[in-house]
Specification:
- By secondary structure, the chain is an alpha/beta fold.
- It is built from 17 helices and seven strands.
- Helix content is 50%, strand content 9%.
- The strands form two sheets. It has a five-stranded mixed sheet, with helices on both faces.
- Helix 3 packs across helix 4.
- The chain starts with a helix and ends in a 12-residue tail after the last helix.
Amino acid sequence: MALLATNYHNIYTSELWTMVGEYVCTLSKELQQRAKEEINEDPARRAADIEHIRDWLKHQPHIRARTDDWTILRFLRGCKFSLQRTKEKLDMFYTCKSLCPEWYKNRDPQDKKMRAILELGLMLPLPGYDHLGRKVFVGRWGVYDPKEFSVDDIMKASLMISDILADEDEQSTITGTVMIGDAHDMTLAHMTAYTPSIVKKSMVLWQEGYPMRPKGLNYINTPAAFDTVFNIFKSFMKEKMKKRVHLHGNDLESLHRQVPKEVLPVEYGGTNGTVEEITKYWLERVDARRDWLLEDEKYGVDESKRPGKAKTSADLFGIEGSFRKLTVD
């Protein structure tokens, strides 16, 4: 427990997440150099780039966005400081928020249903970072009862955690993230709940809307029927993401070759605290950020004010055509 507390202390004692004004860098010199080399960040130009995007947002009548330095910088980093790509991603992010109210509205961590899901420890960013400085998440997709909770409930709770992490953790904006999907206890009822339309919606959101830098997808404890569902997800993945997928079956040693034991919970053969401890930590974090989560609901888009043609859920998340071509092998 002491190691767990120390790791979290090192990450989150920064005042970064409370800032609404001018950005103050918390990165080490090594990470600042990586930012220059890997994502084209120029400290001399950073403020001007942030101001450029902020001015652009102010002139978008349909977008209600956060315009603080830190939020804009996260999107600039996720787009390797391409101003055009940053504008497109911000538009998509806020569009997805408004077109997916089932995932982004009523995000109260003290709501009875949300609390029950959060207490399961379904989505857990792990303390510390891996050997390449990346933030590691564990998604425990089989721990909930599909008769009690819908996929929309699960997505909402998961996004609450990941959104807080993104707002609080500066290092991962440079080094990226790694996901471990644990399919232990997943049943056919769990898997069939992920319809092609839900799968596409989630993939559009993650790949087109979020400024995260996913570096690896690891699946462990996968049942026999997992391949069928995974092939649906894979059909909507970009080619570079397909190359970052690792299927480990029930082999923990195989997982450890991708994610070192030092960053994993003891339940995964690691030394980095227990699932129970990490779950408790994230319950405390969502409670601490409750006001932020509730306030965040006001941001999104008003399609009636969008210049040109309004966007719809069918435009963004429709599967006809793209799914018709899918071959599940």
